C-alpha cells in the first residue's frame, strides 16, 4: 500500500477509491496500461496521486487507466528537446505528468468509453502527420483539441499545478 507519511487518511481513502474505480470502471484502459507497464518494467516507477507513473525514455506521454507514462527528466537523451536545459526538461516533465493525470480522471468519468472517445482523438491529434503539420503551420497549441484541453483543466484543478497549456 502507499506509504507516504504526508498523506492524510482522507487522501489515502481517495487513492483507494481512485484505484478501485480504475480497476473496475476503467478496466479496459487499465489492462492496456498494465501491458505497457510490463514492456517498460525496467524503467523508474512511482506513485503519482494514486496513479502508477512510469518514467520512460521518450518525450511523449500517455495515460491508460491507472497507468501514466511520462518522459524521464533524468534521461540525458531528452535534453535535446529543451536545448540542454535540465531545469526546463524537469518542468516540462512535471507539466506532462499533470496533463496525463488529467487523462486518468477522464478515464474515471468515461469508463469504457474512454478509449473510443478521448483515446482515439488524443492519439490521432498527437501522432497523425496531418495534425502535426496543422499545429506547426498555424501555431495551434497541443491543448487546442478538446480532450487535451480537458485533461489540462482536470489535472490543474485537482493537483493545483500547471499542465501543458
TrEMBL record:
Keywords: Membrane, Transmembrane, Transmembrane helix
Protein name in UniProt: Uncharacterized protein
Keyword Transmembrane helix: yes
Annotated source species: Alkalibacterium iburiense
Transmembrane domains' residue ranges: 12-41, 105-125
Amino acid at each position: 500500500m502507499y506509504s507516504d507519511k504526508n498523506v492524510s487518511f482522507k487522501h489515502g481513502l481517495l487513492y483507494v477509491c481512485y484505484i478501485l474505480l480504475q480497476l473496475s470502471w476503467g478496466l479496459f484502459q487499465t489492462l492496456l496500461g498494465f501491458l505497457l507497464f510490463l514492456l517498460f518494467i525496467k524503467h523508474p516507477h512511482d506513485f503519482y496521486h494514486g496513479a502508477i507513473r512510469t518514467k520512460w525514455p521518450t518525450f511523449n506521454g500517455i495515460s491508460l487507466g491507472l497507468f501514466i507514462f511520462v518522459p524521464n527528466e533524468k534521461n540525458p537523451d531528452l535534453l535535446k528537446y529543451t536545448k540542454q536545459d535540465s531545469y526546463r526538461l524537469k518542468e516540462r516533465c512535471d507539466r506532462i505528468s499533470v496533463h496525463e493525470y488529467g487523462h486518468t480522471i477522464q478515464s474515471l468519468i468515461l469508463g469504457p468509453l474512454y478509449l473510443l472517445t478521448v483515446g482515439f482523438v488524443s492519439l490521432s491529434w498527437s501522432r497523425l502527420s496531418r495534425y502535426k503539420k496543422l499545429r506547426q503551420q498555424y501555431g495551434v497549441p497541443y491543448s487546442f483539441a478538446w480532450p487535451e484541453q480537458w485533461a489540462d483543466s482536470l489535472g490543474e484543478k485537482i493537483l493545483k499545478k500547471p499542465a501543458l497549456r
